[in-house]
Design a protein that fits this description.
Length: 285
C-alpha cells in the first residue's frame, strides 16, 4: 500500500498541494477510521493523559514523515523519494542505540556505513540536476525518514499501552492540525473535483488508516526497527509504478544506491544469515 501510494499521492498533490495533501489526507483518515469503528463496533478508549503521546506521534509520524515525504516527492519524483524512504531503519537503529542503549555489533556498524554510503551514491551521482530544488527535496526526505523512525521508537517506548486504532486516530488528528496553518503559504493548487476527493480518500483509507493500524501493531509486537523492514518493499513497488504509470526513468546509479541502502539495512536488522552460518561452521569444527 505504501508503495502504490506514491501514484495516488502525485494525484493528490496536483490538486491540494503538498501541505493540503497531508492535512486533508489526515482528516480523511480520521473520518474513515471513526466510521469504521462505529460500523465494526470497535470500542475506542481515550484517556486524557494519552494526549501528549498523540501530539508527539502526530509531529513525528505524520507532520515530519508525511510532510517531508510529500514535499520531497514534489521535487525528486517517485523513484528517488521511494528509494530514500528505505533509510528509515538506519535512522531507527541509531535512535535505538541512543535512546535504548542498544549496542551495535560490527556487522550493524558496517551496515550503517554501507546504507548511508548508498545515500551518498544516490545524491552525488544522481541523474537529476543538483540544484536548490533537488537539495530541498533531499532535506525533506531526510526529515521524513528521521521523523518516522523517531515516531516508531517513541510508540514502542512510551505509547505501547495505547491500542493501534487509538494511536492511528490520535496521530493523524494532531499531525493534520500541525500542517494546516502552512496552507497560508502553500495553498490548494486548483479547485478539487469529485475525482480529486476520490484519490484523497483512496490514499487516506489505505496508506494512512489501514497501513498505520497494521504498522502500530507491528511496533508493539516486534519493535520499531524490525517493523520498519516493511519499508523494503516500498521502493520496489514505487519504482515499478513510477516507471510504468508515471513515465519516470531509473538509472544504474539509482539501482546501485538502492542496493547499498537495502544491504546496509539488512545488516543493521540482522536479516542476513551471516552470523548464524558462522556459528554453524565453528560448531562443525
Amino acid at each position: 500500500m505504501w508503495g502504490l501510494s506514491f501514484v495516488w499521492l502525485t494525484k493528490v498533490i496536483a490538486t491540494f498541494g503538498w501541505v493540503g495533501g497531508v492535512s486533508f489526507r489526515a482528516a480523511a483518515a480520521v473520518l474513515i477510521l471513526l466510521v469504521l469503528a462505529k460500523v465494526m463496533k470497535v470500542q475506542l478508549q481515550y484517556h486524557p493523559e494519552d494526549t501528549k503521546h498523540f501530539a508527539i506521534l502526530g509531529a513525528t509520524s505524520v507532520a515530519m514523515n508525511l510532510g517531508g515525504m510529500t514535499f520531497a516527492l514534489s521535487r525528486l519524483g517517485t523513484a528517488l523519494t521511494a528509494i530514500l524512504v528505505t533509510t528509515i531503519p538506519l535512522y531507527s537503529a541509531l535512535i535505538e542505540r541512543v535512546w535504548g542503549g542498544i549496542k551495535h555489533t560490527k556487522l550493524m556498524i558496517l551496515g550503517l556505513w554501507i546504507g548511508f554510503g548508498g545515500v551518498v551514491i544516490l545524491i552525488g551521482l544522481s541523474s537529476q540536476q543538483i540544484n536548490s530544488n533537488f537539495l530541498l527535496g533531499f532535506v525533506g526526505s531526510t526529515i521524513a525518514s528521521f521523523g518516522f523512525a523517531l515516531g516508531g521508537n517513541y510508540s514502542k517506548q512510551k505509547a505501547q499501552h495505547i491500542g493501534a486504532w487509538e494511536q492511528t486516530i490520535g496521530t493523524f488528528t494532531f499531525g493534520g492540525l500541525y500542517l494546516l496553518p502552512f496552507m497560508i503559504a502553500v495553498p490548494i493548487v486548483k479547485t478539487p473535483t469529485p475525482a480529486s476527493f476520490g484519490w484523497l480518500f483512496l490514499l487516506a483509507g489505505t496508506a494512512s488508516a489501514l497501513a498505520y493500524i497494521l504498522y502500530f501493531r507491528l511496533v508493539t509486537e516486534i519493535g520499531a526497527t524490525k517493523a520498519l523492514t516493511t519499508e523494503f518493499l516500498v521502493p520496489v513497488v514505487a519504482v515499478i509504478v513510477g516507471v510504468v504509470f508515471l513515465g519516470e526513468s531509473i538509472t544504474i546509479t539509482d539501482l546501485i544506491g538502492a542496493a547499498c541502502i537495502l544491504l546496509g539495512s539488512s545488516l543493521v536488522l540482522g536479516l542476513l544469515p551471516i552470523k548464524r552460518n558462522t556459528q554453524v561452521e565453528l560448531a562443525s569444527h
